[in-house]
Structures are given as C-alpha cells and as structure tokens.
Amino acid sequence: MGNIDVFWNYIKQYFKSRLIYRMDFVNEIFSDLCMQAVSLIFILVVFQHTPAMAGWTKEEVIFIYGYFLVPFSIFQTFFNLWDFNERYIIKGEMDRVLTRPLHNLAQIVLERTQPESLFGIMTGMFIMGYAAVQLDLSFAWYDPLIFIVLVLGSVGIYAGVYVAIASIGFYSDSRTGIAPMIFNIQNYGRYPLDVYNKAIRFILTWILPFAYVGMYPSAYFLERKMWYVYTFATPFVGGFVFILGIAIWNFGVKQYRGAGS
User: Fold this and answer.
1) What pTM was estimated for this model as a whole?
2) pLDDT for res 4
3) Is 200 exposed, middle or buried (0-12, 13-18, 19+ CB in 10 A)?
4) What pairs with residue 52 in β-bridges?
5) Strand, coil or helix: what is 188?
6) Radius of gyration of the chain (CA)
7) What's the pLDDT tens digit per position in 169-211?
8) DSSP 3-state assignment of 57?
9) What percent of the chain has pLDDT above 90?
10) Are 164 and 242 in contact (CB under 8 A)?
11) How buried is residue 245: exposed, middle or buried, by Cβ count under 10 Å (0-12/13-18/19+)?
12) Distance (Å, rounded) from C-alpha 150 to C-alpha 217?
C-alpha cells in the first residue's frame, strides 16, 4: 500500500503542476493525436495504390495499428526515459534519486509519469473497433481477458527494451544514445511482418521483439492462425524482456559512481 500511496501522490502533484499551464497540457494531447492521425493517414495513402499488403487487407493493417497504440500509450505514460542521460546522469539528478528509500527505477518512473499519454488508449481502441466492424469480427467472452494479457506482454517488451537502453547512460555521457534509432525500429511492429525480408523478421522476432507489440498479438483477433504460437508467446516474451531490462538496469546502477566521476 505504501508504494501505491506514493504513486497516487505523484499523480496528484503531476496534475496540480500541469494544470497550472492548461494550454500546454491540452497542446500535448493534441500533438499526440496529430501524430497518430498522420500515421493512420500514411496507411490509408499506401492502400490507395494497392488492394493488399503482402496478403493483409487495409482493415487488418488498421487493426494492427490500433492495437499497436494501446501498449505504446501505456509504455509512454510510465516509462518516459527519453532524456534520462541528460537529466539524471549529465545533470547529476541520479545522485538525488539514490538517496531516496524507493527503488531508484520506480522513483524515476514516478517522476516521469505522463498521464496525458493514456488518451492514446482510447484512440487505439476506437481504431480497432472501426476495423473490427469493417472486418465483421466476432469476439468470445474471454477475448477481453486475452487482450489485457497480450497488452501487458507488449508493454513489458517496450519497458524492458527502453530500460536496458537507458542503462547505457551509466557508462556513457551521450545525451541521446541509441534510443532514437530503436524508436524508429519499433515502428516496424505496426505493420505485418510479411512485408519485410527474413533478416528484419528475425530481428523483430528474436533480437528487438517489436513484432510482439503489434502484429503477433493482433493475429489472434484477426484469426490468423499461422501466427498463434507467436501470439500466445507474447506474455512470456514480455516478461522475459522486462526482467532482463531490470537486471541490466540494476547492474548499471551498481557501476554508477556519481555525477562527479
């Protein structure tokens, strides 16, 4: 209960501080919606020139994109570590974090929480709902539970990968690191793997498993049975990647010698 109280107090303080500048808060939500709209428009433009993408219809690709937005929004809300190197390593705030009783990563996650990113969940659900109607999909009573488990697995993959990448900051003074490159690679997960060559499919499945944040989980609801083994592996892959990311983080913290080193 103690950690939940701390989390809730952080959320309250966050909204108090952000609502002082309400237009900035609204602008960030609007900006996120615009970026999501641009990505959706890009998919629609592609399908103006082709009836299908490697055997996947426009509505199926839109459904995958809708799913992709749900775990991404949760990840973006709680694991906003983009400026970790600059703020916590270069500016020395990691020293302050290490003096607090809460686990250092939990402390940073709470400080960087962005609840406005959760609006992306509604956008993703709306897009999935639209595509499901167009595809005339039917759902069983247990599908919402499967959806939640798959989303948690996808969030675990995002969190594990980016926590591991942020850990590089314990060894490097680079302001940006490789996070922007990984961000570009993750976007490949919003499209069917069939459109890529074997090398990229291997990377997205086994090295940087971003196929599990979009296509593989979506395959279950789209009844693409040939991908089911990957679909149901999503929670396990997510758990493994998340635990690995935390282990790399904890090892990096042990190597950290302070801002003055």
Assistant:
1) 0.86
2) 67
3) middle
4) 57
5) helix
6) 19
7) 887 766 666 777 888 888 888 888 888 889 999 999 999 999 9
8) strand
9) 41
10) no
11) buried
12) 6
